[in-house]
Amino acid sequence: MSYMKPFSYDDFLTYKIQEGDTPESVAEKLDIDLYALRSYHNRYCESVEDCIGPTFPRHLKFLIIQSQEEKEKIEAHREPIHFSTQNFKLPFLPSHLNKRYLAMYDIEKGSEKNSIKEEIDVKWLATDKNGYSLIEIDRKALFVNENYEKSMADELAEKTAKVFYPIDVIVDSNGKCIDINNFDEIRERWNDVKKEVLKEFEGEIVEERLKAFELKLDDNDIIRESFLNDWFLRAFFNGLNVEYKESLTIKNVIGFPISKKIGEVKFEVEQTIMPKVDQYNLVNITQKGVLVDERSKNDFENNLLFPYDSLEENKSEQLEAIYEAYYFLNPNTNTVESLFLECEIKLDIPQKIAITISGLEETGKLILDGKIKLHVPMQKKEPSLFREFFWIIVLIVTLLSVLIWIFLKLQKHNYE
Would I find Transmembrane helix among this entry's keywords (predicted)? Predict the structure, then answer.
């Protein structure tokens, strides 16, 4: 038996956010790994508006952290990672994957900063004998920061993009997204989506844009290229389920699309998996990369997608770039529970993308099985009058139900 109660930060161990606090400063103050701190809070906070990325939301007052009791309990039972081969292959086992995630994208271009959030459902559909899995991706909600002024083109693009969801992607046994499976189904949705768009927009420009969109929709390669460069798909299905060898560290070259204009930027990445689950019972994988892209600074400044500038002086100019990613995987499926990925290229106008993806849990659900989360308050807060009133009402309703049941039983007995 289960029932819902109102969410309250009183049900968790919390840290009260002070003026001037940042995720980095709080992690250092509490001696907690920054990425694990962010992941744990995002898993249990009340709503997507309370989730944290590189910064704290302005309205957020409390940060949810793991209790010492919970840490010690998990620490005592930390298990080694279960590899599937002698070469330390991390198996990809998505058959129980059916989860909603919050993806946050913090985009910087010089002094211009924008933030986008979206809720995304990820659901396993099937796996064939060769280890290729079919996984459904469905975007449920999209939020753009208040500072961003949407143009008509942005609004139109957002409405037409609904035709793609849900989209079925093919993921290989290494956990890498390699193709799309439901092109025909996407095209079949177009007429309905187009009708909805035309209810809100009209004019020759709109008609022209819709015709251009239809032409692209007929081309599988255009759809495929667009989605295989999607930030969520590239970050979430990043080929983590590979052979790590005995050292548990491998090196490989990967590309990540920082922006549409400069496209995929190549990095040589050192990828390491920890031998045991962490204090949150999650598999930890880190990726740290250095730039190995053949394009010069001038190539990037001119938004070229391939190396063009042949001047030796420009090629020798040092170009700084950063790639770091921190992954936390479910130890039963080796699929993402949460991640933080940061990619930056320091041009004259620096460009940066920071991605935070967190699995969303049902909050405030009380299961009557003796496994209730204990409240260990770090910050003492006054009890909520609303909460006390709520439980009084629940008690009264329960008592009335029992009395009515007794009354009906007595009536039945008297009748007999």
Answer: yes
